[in-house]
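Example record for the data management plan.
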Amino acid sequence: MRILIIRHADPEYHGDTLTPAGHAEAAALGARLARGLEGTPDFLYTSPLGRARDTAAAIAVAAASPPPGVTPRTLTPAVEGWTRELSHWPRLGEGLATSGDSSNGDGDGNGAVAGEGGGDGGARPGEGGLALWDVPPELIRDAESGSEVSARLMRAARGVDATAADGGGGGGGGGSGGSGGSGGGWDSLVASSDAFLARHGYERVGGRYKVTARNSAVLAVVCHGGFGLTWLAHLLRLDPPVVWTSFWMAPSSVTTVLFDERSPGWATPRCIGLGDISHLEVAGLRIPNSRYEKPNVFGGHARPSGIKANFR
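Corresponding structural encoding:
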């Protein structure tokens, strides 16, 4: 079995949809999947948020009207509520490296969780502070304090109220759908992942998966940058803060996870492709700049000072 972890195409967070460039990316992505570069998807799942659903819709359209020489197929997107962006997880403020637990801040008012803020037209709706997956990497890599910062991030991730709802990134909801709900923290994500994979014949036992119904299905899951990295960390048994600060999933990118069977009855997830955007090259596209991606401000932490702005 293969899982394609697909980040939605270039987003317009105000209105929770895609930009014009995002719609072009989604069409190119759909053509790629229809051609079956990673194997033609047998199942198409999507986050309930609008930008993911719009991307999934483009994939379904391309499957029904594929490039020449490709047999048309019907793919109906199914909503999986647990794959929505983790915008309900705590936000980080200026005190990250020195304050107490990010779930409750410190006594000086410099707690690691930032309050909600509206922001200007270049901010995501309802966001304030940095998402956990946008923490400056140098804090994690610091030899003296990095392990404690990582532990603090995970305490925050584990402490999310299971009834929490998506707190940012637009309102294109549409219910939880599928396995798992839309709230909860790290443990909830793990439980929802386990239930989802068990439905497809792979039951987690520790760090490996018991094969209960061996198959070669390809599951395309359209989700989000923060969620995608976090789920990948779980599947690969890697420390989430290390994954958050070491990898990036570009809009419309495809990350391929193979459930590798080396012993009878057992499988382990193996990443065989990360953040691939070759479909943009085929379509003559490039990653667009976004008004949500701004050069580093180093001290202000107003929107995460995006990677796209940094590598231009």
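Summary line stored alongside the record: The chain is about 30% helix and 20% strand.
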